[in-house]
Amino acid sequence: MLADSESPPRPTGHRCMLCKRDLSFRPEGPIYQPINPPAVAVLPCGHTFHDQCLQNITPEDQSKDPPCIPCAIGEKQA
Q: Is the Cβ–Cβ distance between 18 and 57 less than 8 Å?
């Protein structure tokens, strides 16, 4: 049993714009909350992503300034 100080993180209510999972959950595999939340990327437009999801779709030559796919297709920030 977990002590109060060891309770797992709660969902943030913010979702990755690519995989659509809560940012506190792992971006791949079974849905669960690791003790240490996954790294998150927030682009200048405000869209949020799991860092891993964004890296998976970003061409290497754009890795320093990744494009925002939701903005490119006209999806508004929730």
A: yes
